[in-house]
Amino acid sequence: MQRVLITGATGLVGGHLLRLLNSDPRIDSIIAPTRRPLSGVSGVENPHDPQLSDALALVTEPVDTVFCCLGTTRRDAGSKEAFVLADYTLVVDTALTGLRLGAMQMLVVSSMGANARSPFFYNHVKGEMENALMAQQWPSLTIVRPSMLLGDREKKRVNESLLAPLFRLLPGNWKSISAHDVARAMLALAFLPSNQPTRVVKSAQLRAIAADSSLAK
Which end of the chain is flanked by fewer CB atoms within 10 Å, N or C? Predict the structure, then answer.
């Protein structure tokens, strides 16, 4: 039985993952720190504070696995500094909290194109985040790199709406992927042993894992 910590549970991928975790008999308990209280979800411990780092500090119970689904865009964040807070600092804070609580594995949503040497700000920050987590030397770290996410957001992103029809037609890792499939793949990966401490799972493989996990049910 797994005890789980999840951040980003109010987001597109995290919302799907929280529901999957809550209905999975292999999951014994779920702790989901958030900025605002969760609604419509039962059986989940939900420490909340407008400052997510403060909500994380409230968690004291041991956990086995950490899921991090935090992520935004520079436009939605409002500034470079706010984007770095959401996509780097709070992700690292989540990881450190998991280690403090004794977690042995972490699964995190990154992005296709993540690279600390990238000249593009978004990809650069994602790459720096990945490097920071790898430097923590987790016994098991899974980094998932989805392409453009499809799903119903509370707040529509104009660029995604415009580009979504194109990304549906692209091949391989470029092809867009549903947020639900990313969540389903992350849950499956949490129970799939890896022969290396860090594994990077790209978008096409996420789709395949999600399809396999769906057929297995």
Answer: C
> How confident is the prediction along the chain (217 residues), in pLDDT tens digits per residue?
899 999 999 999 999 999 999 999 999 999 999 999 998 888 999 999 999 999 999 999 999 999 999 999 888 899 999 999 999 999 999 999 999 999 999 999 999 999 999 999 999 999 999 999 999 999 999 999 999 898 775 665 545 555 556 556 555 777 889 999 999 999 999 999 888 999 999 999 999 999 997 655 5
Contact (Cβ atoms closer than 8 angstroms) between residue 55 and residue 25: no
Sign of CA dihedral 55, 71, 152, 207: negative
CB-based contacts of 29, cutoff 8 Å, min separation 6: 3, 4, 45, 61
CA atoms of 209 and 185, how far apart (whole Å) = 5
Q: How far apart are CA 197 and CA 41, in angstroms?
A: 33
Q: How far apart are CA 60 and CA 49, in angstroms?
A: 15
DSSP string, 32-46: --BSS---S--S-B-
Q: How far is CA 54 from CA 25, 61, 106, 116, in A?
A: 30, 15, 20, 28
Q: What is the dihedral sign for C-alpha 33, 39, 44, 47?
A: positive
* Distance, C-alpha 55 to centroid of its chain: 17
Q: In Å, what is the CA distance from 12 to each residue of 7, 26, 28, 49, 97?
A: 12, 23, 23, 20, 22
Alpha carbon of 87 to those of 125, 167, 214: distances in Å?
Answer: 7, 23, 29
